[in-house]
Amino acid sequence: MNEKASVSKELNAKHSKILEGLLKQPENRECADCRSKAPRWASVNLGIFICMQCSGIHRSLGVHISKVRSTTLDTWLPEQVAFMQSMGNERSNDYWEANLPPNYDRSENERFIRAKYVEKKWVSKKATQPTTKPSEKSSNFHKSMESGTRSGIRSKTRKLSLEEEIFTNHIAQIAPPAGRTRWGSLDLNKISPPEKGPPFTGCNTSLNKGNATTDLFHLPYVQDAKPRRSIASSSYYSSWATFE
């Protein structure tokens, strides 16, 4: 998820007012590199405000050197605003221009900016490079901005409807336990063939001649050894012989 999407309109408006106030401070009224008036861009990882021309040069350095944002057009994260509050042009240049000769020629902006931030030609040998970790004051401000206590923003949570709550409870009940799969796989190699029983010897067609009440309808059908036509034909001709 994009972090900028989590910034609400109210929080973004609050950030714009803070940045506008920082730009009115005396040390931030000029570009940190070329000294031009009214800068409207910033490097969020260096903590400086710069003009539009220098912002294009900063973009060419790569995001590993400088991350450029507009103070009026882009969406800022709370930690970025907090770092800009803790730094500013004066504190940043105390490190990057510590050994810069007085009245140094800044006319060649690109060459000057590359020597300043890429080659680190005039950095302070005693101090460490400022990082994006905010100070204790800015950290407290960052926490208050996230919780919404200073801006009056309340976290909005939508309650589930009755249908959604019933559906959620139903899904939780039918869900399989952890560590168990819902469907098992069938391994055909593990299926054993059926056990062989005694050979089929046919139905028992013998009738008990002494039992005259045998139910013939429940006996299996067995084809007689002699064809029926021969039996019927012999009875037919014998009956006609008696009639004659």
Automatic annotation (TrEMBL):
InterPro entries: ARF_GAP_AGD5/15, ARFGAP/RecO, ArfGAP_dom, ArfGAP_dom_sf
Region (Disordered) location: 124-156
Residues in Arf-GAP domain copies: 16-130
SUPFAM superfamilies membership: ArfGap/RecO-like zinc finger (SSF57863)
Compositional bias (Polar residues): 126-152
UniProtKB keywords: Metal-binding, Zinc, Zinc-finger
Cited Pfam families: ArfGap
CDD domains the UniProt entry points to: ArfGap
PROSITE patterns in alphabetical order: ARFGAP
Protein's name according to its UniProt entry: Arf-GAP domain-containing protein
